[in-house]
Amino acid sequence: MTRIWLMGRVLLALTGILALATNPLGSTVHADASYGHQYAIAYQATRSYTGVKADIEVAAPILRDCVTGGCWSSDTLSSAKVAILNGPAENLKWVEMGWTKHAVTACAIRHYWAIQPGTPHFVDWPMPMIGQRYEYRVAQDQAGNLWSVTVYHVDSSGTRISKDWWNYDVNPGFTVGDEIQAFGETFYSWANDMGVSGLLDLKWRDTGSSWHGWHGWRQAVTHDTPPYWVVGVLDTENNVQVHGNQGNPVPPNAACP
Q: pTM of the prediction?
C-alpha cells in the first residue's frame, strides 16, 4: 500500500492536476488512479491536525475471486476510511482507519487501522454490519507519538450506541499531521466495486484539542475504462458520498485480462 500514498502525494506535489474542485479554505476533492487502485478522496492540507473522524456507512461492494482465488485474489479490496498524514512523499507517515472488504479476510468486512507502510490491522470482533454507521476516530491524545484509534457504533442520527473497539498505543512516528483525508478505495478497479458509502459528520481536531466541521465541499468524478466510475459527492453539512461501479464489476471467475 505504500506506493499508493507516495504516488498520490508525489503527483499532487509535482503537478496538482488531480485536484478537481477547491474552495477558499483549501478543502479539495480529487479522484486518483494509481497501479490499479481507484480513489475518491476529500482532503485538506492547510492546518496542523491532531485528529480526524467521520461516521462511515458500511457498503456491500462486490469483489472478484476474493474467496476462491484468481487473478488478483491476494490484493483484492474495497474500503472507506479517514486518515491523517505527515511529511513529504519520500518520508510519508500516516494513520488510517475505516472498514474494508479484503482478500486477506476471505471477503468478510472488518474494521481496520493501518500506519506506514500500510499493512492493515484487522479487528476480528465485533464485525461491522452492512448498512450500519460507525464513527471512526483517529486522535493524538496519548503521550509522545502515541495515537488512539476508536470505533463507535452510531445510529442514523449519529448518536453513539456503543464503543465497539479501540487501541490507544498506535505509534506512526509523528505528533501533528499536515493533511487529513476521507475517501473510498478499490483495488483492482477494473474488476471490483467500491460500493456506496457515506462519510458523514466529517470533523478535524486542532492542536488545542477542539473539533471542527469539515465543510464547503464540491463534487468530483473520474472515469476508468472498461466502465468504472468513482464519484465523491460533497455538501455543506460535513458529508461526502463515494461510490464506484456498484453491481457492474468484471464477472466472478471471468478470464484474466
A: 0.82
80 vs 109: CA distance, rounded Å: 11
DSSP class of residue 256? P
**pLDDT for 234-252, tens place per residue?**
566 788 888 777 666 666 5
Q: Which amino acid is at 23?
A: N
C-alpha to C-alpha distance for 29 and 33, rounded to whole angstroms: 14
C-alpha cell at 113: 487501522
Per-residue confidence (pLDDT) for residue 202, from 0 to 100: 92
Cα gap 137→224, rounded to integer Å: 31
Could you tell me which residues come within 8 angstroms of residue 246 by beta carbon, excluding any fewer than 6 positions away?
A: 59, 61, 62, 193, 194, 195, 196
Nearest CA among 40, 39, 98, 101 for reference residue 73: 101
Plot region of 245 (φ>0 → left; ψ -120 to 50 → alpha; else → beta): left
Name which CATH class applies to 2-244.
mainly beta
**What pairs with residue 55 in β-bridges?**
135, 200
- When the pLDDT of each residue in the chain is averaged and rounded to a whole number, the result is 77
Q: Which residues contact 159 (CB under 8 A, 6 or more apart)?
A: none
How many CB atoms are closer than 10 A to CB 73? Answer: 17
Cα distance between residue 58 and residue 52, in whole Å: 18
Domain segments of the chain as ranges: 2-244
